[in-house]
Amino acid sequence: MPALNTSPKSAANRSIPSEALVEMLRSMRRIRAIEERIESEYSKDEMKTPVHLYIGQEAVGVGVSANLRKDDYVFTGHRSHGHYLAKGGDLKAMMAELYCRETGCSGGRGGSMHLIDKSVGMLGSSAIVGGSVSIAVGTALASQRLGQGRVAVAYFGDAALEEGGVFESINAAVLWNLPVLFVCENNLYSVHSHLEARQTTIELAPKVKGFGLPSVKVDGSDLFDVYEKSKAAVERARAGDGPSFLECQTYRWRAHSGAGDAGAAKYRKAGEHEEWMKRCPIGDLEKKLIADGDLAPKAIAEMDAEISREIDEAFAFAKQSPFPKNEDLGKHVFFEPEAK
Ligand SMILES: Cc1ncc(C[n+]2csc(CCOP(=O)(O)OP(=O)(O)O)c2C)c(N)n1
Ligand SMILES: [Mg+2]
């Protein structure tokens, strides 16, 4: 059975082909550029949805997704844009969803926190803290029973480990040996509360280990570490050897919600933000790829120009799309009103 690599980060690892690394860099730059554009447009108040930006955490979604098949399942919470895009989600459909348009991936009914796209295995994001975990476990149970060979991933934040249902779900997943990957993005904060004020330890992996599953710390700013440890966990799940827990230590660079971070000084520890900004997951990978000769600086400029064009098109598509029609209000809900 494949064991989880519990060694410190493996930055020197070159078992990943150059093309795959360049693709992961592109994916991270794309996610960041999209989030930055959302942030700059947000004050116009045309996106009638709360947004929770993923800037600073990109290596987690990208490193995990690089090990998933298109038909594997992903469940996530309110900070969901990066997870959707990394899983192969459609940018136009995501932007249209943020503008609450009919062409959105959830038909304009969900907004940023309720992205769903069955075509890429994105079975949903939900604003219920920890909500992704129990649904992912249920889906993993279905995959196991149906012999589908699909792995389910639950992304969630550090605050999810303050929810009873999360522990019940992890217990069931271990008991039943389910093909599920628990990806905790420990960014130290729940809204404005530091982890030290909320839990007895800021190290989450050891706490979960007691359930009897491999539970490891991951450097969430190091794409190599995320990639290698999630690879082992996905292989383990796919081989029928059960779930794993990854505590990805990371940091959100922006506010809990919305644009900017006006109240940062009131809740962040002095110097903490600056320290984490030195560990940019994108900048670090980019420097390494250039130093190793895998990428020319010119290629980065070309990559960015292409991404920028794609973003322009997605925003234009979203803004030009129609709003859902009044008569379709009852569509996609369990109870559909009878036609008159
Ligand atoms: C069950 C539940 N409790 C409380 C909230 C309010 N709430 C929304 S986001 C959030 C913080 C979540 O923090 P974390 O899980 O660490 O994710 P992060 O925002 O840091 O990515 C809280 C408490 C909620 N949405 N659901
Ligand atoms: Mg958090």
Overview of this protein structure:
- The chain has 340 residues and is α/β, with parallel strands linked by helices.
- The chain has one domain: Thiamin diphosphate (ThDP)-binding fold, Pyr/PP domains (Rossmann fold).
- The chain is built from twelve helices and eight strands.
- The protein has helices at 18-42, 58-65, 81-86, 91-98, 131-146, 164-175, 205-209, 223-238, 264-267, 272-277, 281-291, 297-320; strands at 73-76, 122-125, 152-157, 180-186, 189-190, 193-194, 215-219, 244-249.
| Spans where pLDDT lies below 50 across 5 or more residues | 1-12
Number of strands: 8
Oligomeric category: single chain
Largest sheet: 6 strands, parallel
Helix count equals 12
Attribute tags:
340 residues; alpha/beta; Rossmann fold; 6-stranded parallel β-sheet; two-stranded antiparallel ribbon; 12 helices; 8 strands; globular; disordered N terminus; binds thiamine diphosphate; binds magnesium ion
